[in-house]
What we know:
The protein has 28 helices and six strands. The protein is mainly alpha-helical and about 600 residues long. A two-stranded antiparallel ribbon has the order 1-4. Strands 2-3 form a two-stranded antiparallel sheet. It has a two-stranded antiparallel ribbon with strand order 5-6. Helix 17 (about 390-420) crosses helix 21 (about 470-485) and helix 26 packs antiparallel against helix 27 (about 560-580). The relative contact order is 0.09.
Amino acid sequence: MPILPAIGRRTPKVRLVIAAIYALLVLGGVTMVYPLMVMLSGSVKGQADTEQMDAFPEFLLSPRLRFARFMEDRYGTLTNLSSAFGREVMRFRDLPDAPGGDRVALLRRFLGSQEAAPDHFYWVAESGNVQSMQLRNFRALRDSLRSECGSVGEFNRRYGLPITTWNDFPGVLDNPATKEFNYERSALYDRYLRFKRALPGADRAWVNVDGLYVLAQAKMAGVKSGAWPRQSILAERMPEGASGKPWAEFVQHGLNCLFVRLDQAGLAGFRSDLSHRFGGDVGKMNALLETRYSSFADIRCTLEELRSSALFTAYTQYITDRCPPERLRVDAMNTRYRAYAAAHRPDAARTAPPIAAYDHAVFEATHRAWLAETMTRNYRIVVGYVTVYGRAVLNTVALIGLSVLAALLVNPAAAYALSRFRLKNTYGILMFFLATMAFPGAVTMIPNFLLLKELHLLNTYWALVLPGLANGFNIFILKGFFDSIPQEMYESAMLDGAGEWVMFWRFTMALSTPVLALIALGAFTSAYSAFMFALIICPDERMWTIMVWLYQLQQTAHQSVIFAALVLAALPTLLIFVLAQRVIMQGIVVPIEK
């Protein structure tokens, strides 16, 4: 019977009350929907727009912010991004304009001729792994190694690394913008360089040494006081006059020495320096520097030779501390571009290459593919995390299946016994069951842990399922539902020769589908969302469930990855409720009506 009769609803006061009720319901719905929209929006964001708590991703509406997101993925760090623009960028979203004009076409033609460019001339675009934000090429490299090696153990044996899972994979192995970086001569670097060289041109983010030079000058005391003129390009050789001092300072102390070559006199000086250090004994040098030269005259300092870490260290020390700057020459994409421009367009031969404008052209050409990647990336990271790590999915599916099965067998059997056989202390037993609800789950965790430890059941599925095998509240609800079934039905069944099992399974369980669906949903939700208890009783990572792994992910992950994890974690429960909502609602309403 409705609370408000149909006739009474026609009065203005009642209509006003009804309107107020609907307004409150709408307001309540909005307060639930808005946080969900913020979470969905945040799950596709990056560092450039993560601070914006909006219900719709801003970068989908702003071409400038989309480009900022693209450059964030392309360069990974603000330092690398700043070098591309030749000025300091404080936030990813605050990119300066990148005018390039028709010089972009010239740079594109030049880069097209640099298929065999040295490895340190460019980064691998979209290869970062900052706060678990594993970008496209990072995942591509990791997945290719997983396919080749098959297991973490084989990867460790082949490449000499001590990782425990694939999510510990180091990923990108180069950073040519730093002074000390070098490509070691190892199996892992050899494999990485094969991956890097096979990338298409759009996945090469070129190192702009002109931009690095401008940023370095801003930190030089002489530039700040105005003693040195600020140069926008890094010349191949040391300029004459006042410009020579900042050039020498940067090339010798700030620039990675892979970009620095020695002329003939400089190379002779390096050989002489090594001979002096090792007393003219090339065998001693080979032993200490792990080289294989027959004489000091064989040293050429090619890029392949410099992959020897010890030789590269000696080379860097000589350039930094003892080599006259006049003997140095910068060999970078920028200097080669200017030489190319001198032959094809002389007016561009004295300018910095428009790297940022070129990146914008790449963005326009790959916009659709990049947008599809960035909209799904965080979700792929989360899915990869729980599937690559241990047996999280298998453990969770097993726990849910066993928990639901136990809930649908143990609880109905107990409730059926209390309902059918009218035990003397039935109500005392029910009160005991209900009393268990007075204690929060955290109170029983330690006793359960100690009991399971004594039974040697830790790190097993038994430990996950047994403590929740029976539920006092579920038994209470089921008993009340079973009591409402007419006794005449049981009497008729007994006259026809039916046993207790037939009456329990064929009649009682068949007539209790709605409330059993409610019990199953509760068991599913409890098992799926179990975190603290699953972590305590299963210290072994191989037995961790999805929720435990997602908690571990949240300790180091970026906020957008955490949002994606929350969205994915909510999907199974949401799908179960949507697909079975009619039966579940009957399970909620029917017991109340009974």
